[in-house]
Structure formats: C-alpha cells, structure tokens
Design a protein that fits this description.
The protein is mainly alpha-helical and 151 residues long. Helix content is 82%, strand content 0%.
Length: 151
C-alpha cells in the first residue's frame, strides 16, 4: 500500500473543490473569486502602503469597512434576485424563468474593480504592469456597466 501523502492531499483537494462545485455551481465559484480578489486587494494594498512608508491602522480599518460595504451590496443583489424570482414565478402567464441576473453582474463588476486595484497596488510595489492588461480590465468593466444599464 502506497502511503504517498501528496496523493492523499491532492485527492482531498479535488474532493473539496468537487463538492463545492456540486453544491454551489458557477455562482459559487464567482463568489469565491470575488472573495479571493478582496483578500488579495487588501493584502497588496497594505503591502504597497508599507513599502511607501504610509501604512496606517486607520486606513487599514477604512479598507475593511469598504469591503464590508461591498458585502452588503452583494447581499442586496442576491436578495433582489430572490425577490424578482419569486415575483416572476407567481405572475400568471409570465413566460420568464428568472433565476439570477443582478448578483452575477454585481460580482463580475466587483471582481473587475478589485483586479484593477490589485494592478495599481502591484505597480505601487514596483512591479511593471502591462498597459494592455489595464485597458482590457477597464474595457471589461465598462462592458459590464453598459450591459447592466441595458438590463
């Protein structure tokens, strides 16, 4: 019997990710990506401030409050989707099967915003950031905003 710890760890990781995907689907992965982006943005922002000698606990708390506000907005979007879904299901003769719209759009918008902020933080830490990447993220964010405005 092979007691290779790496195979057991890999199997556990695959099991956890498989269970997560089965339980929450694509929307769960979107939420997970957003949370990861928030954490990376906070850490990279703190790192950039430390590098510049400008880190302060007051600014760090402000960043945490900002992230808390984002969480509230995501909860509101999820609740709005739930209410719209219930209303669409109860209106007789309405040929709409509404599941979600607002939550994924809000999450993608926040993810793109966080990615842009992470790039700014990386540049402040001294990393070269390709201009095309900044333009692609800005364009994607604008596209999401335009699509949400049309919905």
């Amino acid at each position: 019997m092979d007691n290779n710890i790496f195979l057991m760890v890999k199997a556990a990781i695959v099991g956890v990710f498989g269970a997560f995907g089965a339980a929450f689907g694509w929307l769960g992965w979107l939420v997970l990506a957003w949370v990861a982006c928030m954490v990376i943005d906070y850490i990279s922002g703190s790192s950039a401030a430390m590098k510049a000698g400008q880190w302060s606990s007051a600014e760090a708390r402000s960043g945490i409050w900002h992230k808390g506000g984002m969480i509230v907005v995501v909860i509101v979007a999820a609740l709005a989707d739930a209410v719209l879904g219930m209303v669409a299901a109860k209106v007789p003769g309405l040929p709409i099967d509404y599941t979600v719209l607002l939550l994924p759009v809000v999450l993608v918008w926040y993810i793109l915003t966080e990615l842009g902020s992470i790039l700014e933080n990386a540049a402040a830490m001294g990393a070269p950031v390709p201009d095309f990447l900044i333009r692609v993220l800005a364009s994607a964010k604008e596209t999401v905003e335009d699509a949400a405005g049309e919905a």
